[in-house]
Amino acid sequence: MRPETRPPLNLFITPTLQDLDLDQQQDLDQQQDLDQQQDPDQQQDLMFEDEEGVGRNRILVELELLVCKTRQTVGNMMTTGGKVLLTALLGSQVSIMFPSLSSLLYLLCFQALCTWWAWSGQVPPLLFRCMSVMSLLYSSSHFLLFYCYQLPSLQEAWPPTTPLVLGLVSVVSVDCAAPWRLQVNPELSWFHFSSPLMLLLLYHTVAGLWRNQVRVTSQHTCSDALVSDLTAEGRRELWRTAGDRDVKTPDLLQTPLPGSGQMLLSADTLETCVFEADGWEEEEEDIEERTGEEAVGGASVAFSFVLRQSYICALTSMMAWSITYVSWLTCVLLLWSCVLWMMRERRRYTLMSSPWLVAYGNLLVVLQYVYSFPSVQEVPGLFPRKDDPCRELASKLLCLLTFWLLLRQSLTEKKDRQTDNQLSHITVHLEGKTPKEEVLYEEVLLGGGGVQMEALVAVVTRMFIKYWIYVCGTMFFFVSFEGKIVLYKVIYMVMFLCCVALYQLNYERWRALLRGFWVAVVVYSMLVLILVYTFQFPSSPSTWSYYTGLSTHRLEDVGLEKFSVPVLFTKIFIPAAFLLVCIVHLHYFHEPFLQLTDLKTVVDTHNSTITSLHLTCLSLTCLCICRLVHSEGSLMDLSVGGAPQVHLEEEKGGGPVDGEEIWMKEEEEEEEADYPLLLSWRLVVDRLSVLFLRLLLSLQRMQRLLWWLLELHINKIVSSYIIWVCVKEVCVFNLLFVLCVGGALPCRAWRPLLSGVCTVWTCVVTVCKMLYQLNVVQPIRYSVNCTMPSNSSIDLSHSVLYSGPVDPAQWVGLRKTDGKLLDYLRYNLVMLALLAFEVTVYRRQELYRLRRNKVPPPTRTLFHDITRRHLDDGVIDCVKYFLNYYFYMFGLETCFLLAVNVIGQRMDLFAVGHAFGLITVLSHRSRKRIASVWPRYCYFLSGVLCFQYLLCIGFPPATCADYPWRRLSSTVDSNVVKWLFLPDHLTPPNPLFLLYDFLLLLGASLQLQVFEEELQPVVQVLAGDNSELDGDDAQIYDPIRRSYLDMMKVIIFSYMFWFVLTIIFITGTTRISIFCMGYLVACFYFLLVGGDLLLKPLHSILLYWDCLIGYNVFVITMKNVLSILACGFIKSLVLNHCWLIQLFSLACTIKGYTRRTLSCELPSDEAGIIWDGVCFCFLLLQRRVFRSHYFLYVVLDLQNTQLLASRSRPKLWRMERVWSSSSSEEISGTFRWVQHLTLHYGDLSSSLTTAQISLIKFRLHSRNSVELK
To answer: Which residues form the Piezo TM1-24 domain (predicted)?
Structure first.
């Protein structure tokens, strides 16, 4: 009879009144009335206690369910994991613990089971049972045999060689004199003792699994019998029990006592009953099935992911196997893996070769196992002898495990393809409309990140395409400079340097040959791997020496030497990793990189995949920002595709709202009520996304600014670094760099050519320095020992010629580094990087402008919107203007100051030359005439720089020939040699002085560029006309408004003249010498005629001022010329002419000269030209003020002041004469006229009439008081 259908049982829902009888309903009503009569506070406390009890019970129920699920999972693992444990013990423990003929069967069983699983996907239960029974019987017999062999009679009866092959060793021995004493064999290793223990563990594991299997089988049989014995009356009784459980749900929520198992008993009893119409049990079964499917699905997904990546693990295992265990057989694995790595579809070919790989791996393991027997002799080059074969076999089995996984994945994909092909021919016709699937809110939220994920993938892809080539370039350094330098590493560096040089010289040719370059690198890396690997075989060194004729030391210079396993792993791993990096670039990033960096086909590049990804990323970023900034926009709107503005327009339109819209709003309200925490997190993510995207846009703007600054100054950075390197290491190699920089700075047309020459020469120098580090180069063989003259009056022991053996290679620029090669080459490598980066900056900016249809700005400025007309707008615009055009406006004065700086820092013969060059340039006075001679001045500075570097190099010391001023007949002092900047082996010239000359040359070259640009009309419009003002033709136009900038200009241009005179006075009074007296005379003269001088014509003012500048430069020059007396001949001057020293303030202020004790004292801080340089600076600045049109306002102000003074003085005299006879009204009118005059002329008249106005006020007050009396 079929039972009555009941609704599903829910333990957490209170039963309704329809399910209760009448009595229970009345009791419930009475209880509710009593509850209403209670105090509200008591009701609230009871409700709170009920809620706490329900929450506690729910936690306990959840914990109980978790324990049950854990127990079930552990039980399943014991059923399935026991098999895995058995298989692992068979193969990886028992068989490899002590290789022998008796243990070979375990290894074969392990390989057979794993190969069977990899081929078919599962092990048949019948086969596994047979293997288990056989292993149980065999392991027991094996252990008994091992145990019996410990008997002394068996050990004496059996020879020791045969039992050793079978794996039988005497762990203990018995002495016949003392049979009760057991002696452990001390000659055995740890694996001899572990082997019987693992054998015993195997036996107990298999026996335990069989015992559990028999117990489970008997339980299933009993349960089937109980189910069949249930009668209909018993089933109804069980159903009645379930109904009672449904009614008394609140009681079930209480925590059961530890001693009562009623709840668990009823639950277990009900779980054994199955009713067709019972919806509650069907629901429980569905929940259990879904839970099981989720658990299995998660494990399946994880295992599938591991299987999909098995080809990478297999390739890595092949290389690790071959590198760790060197032999001819494992060399096949190395070649095999290299060939697979080189293929573009490496995954496909790796899966295709998986059966052969498994077969070869099994063969290698079996052969290695056989040759690990104690009595089997080793085979050099194939199976070397190992003291501990257990570890070697374990690692090989671990690598073999990846091969089995690879085979499993290959067959699985093959089966899936066959299934797809079969299903592709099947057509299913569906009638009717397909029902719309329900879309959950969580799915929309989690899946709505498609737009962001697309943008993220585009950004990451573009980043890898752009920068992966830098990873490849970095790997060149890892390969070349790891360990000591050898020939094959030098070849790596030669390939890298050739690539960089071609990139710098010819960009299009570099792009055309780039694929061939990477192919050559890959082939060469494979060749290096094979040669280094095969050289580890015992017979390889003698073979190489026989066929090449090279000794062992020469082969070590090539890079062929024997290494230990850890060192070999490092030596092979780094080239192998470099090989993989190059292959990844060649297969995945090479073609997109060429598309991305193509300068000719910019229009076609817009339609390429890479550019489309970039544009998609930018558009999505802008779209996200626009939507997120909106008050109602969010990432959810972007993901779903909704537009809140459309809804707002519909609401504003007041259109009719149908039932579907009302239903959609209700659904949205329900979702918001159901997921409040989810919505709050979404808002947080939205705000963070806004901040992140704004940060990205700010970084992009900063990036553009940085690239523009690099384009402006990269040439200065590169040339400065080259000169600094040449100064740090003075040698013949670096002479070419100085010549190139000295020629490229004044001649901009030669810069690309000379930059290419520097690049090629840097590559040559780097290769020569690397080759010099080989062991074949021994400097001691060709070093020279020079003989020091015995009767020399000067101590020459510190001279380069006589301090030790002279290596001629050091004069060229080569020396041994004692293992610190990268530190030795860092200057040249950084120089090469800067040269390559320079052309990268220019090409990147060119590509950027071509893709955006932009042209280079006409002026190389920082703020493109600031021009000459913004100079007088305000302080901020004035600062921006000078940041843009400072050198355009004051470059010439800056170069003059740099020349004075060179003179003051050097104070030697070449400083005198710079002083005369400065005098020559200043003698032309006019900016136009100076511009005509400026190119020759630049060439002069370039020639002086190169000639000084030649003097620093000098003659090669290996000739043992000293200079004429160091011969026995010469009496030239070392300080004089130093002042003359002559080459010398004892006191060589200071090359740091060349840095000051270079800065002067750099500034002069920039000023030469300014002279060329200021003639262009576009530059004149933007930067202003830089021509000098002619006072006779000047027109005054006052566009200036009252501002802080106006006040600053009034202070600067009105009072700068008097401030400069103050500086001249300070310069003349800080020291006491004949030169300072000239400053004082000039200062007093200009103070005397200063006001009248400013009102003279401009050419007259400039004539006086240029005379003062000429005197200042003359003083600087004479101090420089007289410095030879203070530094070179100070000894004779002190003895005979002390007055001359004090008259001209002679003192050597440059470091490096030999100081002597002087009886004629003079403070050394009074002899420098610091204050002369400061005075020169302000004199130039005031001269620029004189030639500025702002100075016309100063002249006009002075003229108005004089005019006002001349007009107001007669009227004031007339007021004094008529004062006594005038009335108070007349005096008041006069006073009003004075006030009007003061207000009209401002401060210009107030300074002249203050006393008179005070007198008028006083007399007017006195006159009024008299009249009142």
So the answer is: 30-595
**Inter-CA distances, 711 with 621, 839, 1107, Å:** 28, 10, 42
CA-based nearest residue to 1026, from 1036, 1011, 1037: 1011
Other CB atoms closer than 10 Å to residue 2's CB: what's the count?
Answer: 7
Q: What is the largest CA-CA distance in the chain?
A: 164
16 conformational bin, left if phi > 0, alpha if psi -120 to 50, beta if neither: beta
CB within 8 Å of 155: residues ≥ 6 apart: 149, 170, 173
pLDDT in tens, 1158-1214: 566 665 555 568 899 999 999 999 999 998 888 888 888 888 787 777 665 555 555
| Residue 1188 and residue 893 in contact, taking contact as beta carbons nearer than 8 Å | no
1244-1267 in b/e burial notation, b at 16+ Cβ within 10 A? bbeebbeebbeebeebbeebeeee
pLDDT 10s digits, 663-697: 455 555 555 555 565 667 777 877 888 888 888 88
- Phi (first) and psi of residue 173, to 5 degrees: -135, 155
Q: Count, in order, helices (H) and strands (E) of the chain.
A: 50, 2
CB of 195 closer than 8 Å to CB of 166:
no
Number of residues written out for the chain: 1269
Alpha-carbon separation of residue 304 from 122, 201, 298, 360, 409 (angstroms): 15, 32, 10, 25, 9
User: Distance (Å, rounded) from C-alpha 1132 to C-alpha 1136?
Assistant: 6
What distance in Å separates the CA atoms of residue 1229 and residue 1227, rounded to the nearest whole number? Answer: 5
Q: Quick: pLDDT tens for 960-1001.
A: 888 888 877 777 888 888 899 999 888 889 999 999 999 999
Highest mean pLDDT among 368-377, 430-439, 619-628: 368-377
Residue 657 has pLDDT above 60, yes or no: no
Whole-number mean pLDDT of the chain? Answer: 74
Domain ranges of the chain: 81-228, 302-415, 451-638, 721-784+803-851, 857-1027, 1047-1189, 1206-1268
For 183, the enclosing helix (H) or strand (E) is strand 182-184
Write the CB contacts of 407 (distance below 8 Å, at least 6 apart in sequence): 115, 118, 119, 354, 355, 357, 358
Distance CA 350, CA 343 (A): 10
Mean pLDDT, rounded, for 84-107: 71
Output the CA–CA distances (angstroms, integers) from residue 848 to 279, 704, 853, 908, in the order listed.
70, 10, 9, 49
- d(CA 223, CA 942) in angstroms, rounded, equals 105
What does each C-alpha distance from 283 to 7, 268, 270, 290 come to in angstroms?
Answer: 11, 16, 13, 10
Pure H helices in 1138-1190:
1138-1144, 1170-1186
Would the CA dihedral through 205, 211, 213, 215 be positive or negative?
Answer: negative
595: tokens are: 């598309």
φ, ψ of residue 818 to 5 degrees: the values are 60, 45
Structure letter (DSSP) for residue 564: -
> Is pLDDT at 1122 greater than 80 in this prediction?
yes
Contact 303, 32 (CB under 8 A): no
**How far, in Å, CA of 36 to CA of 590, rounded?**
81
In this prediction, residue 1012 carries a pLDDT of 92
User: How is residue 1165 annotated by DSSP?
Assistant: G
> For the range 1202-1207, what are the long-range contacts, defined as Cβ-Cβ under 8 Å and sequence gap of 24 or more?
1202/1095, 1204/1237, 1204/1241, 1204/1244, 1204/1245, 1204/1248, 1205/1248
Q: Which of 1051, 1075, 1036 is nearest to 1195 (CA)?
A: 1036
CB 609 within 8 A of CB 360: no
> 397: which residues sit within 8 A by CB, 6+ positions away?
91, 92, 96, 365
Question: Any alpha helices (H) in 772-820, and if so which ranges?
Answer: 808-812
The answer, yes or no, to whether residue 835 has pLDDT greater than 90, is: yes
Instruction: Check residue 184 and report its DSSP letter.
Output: E
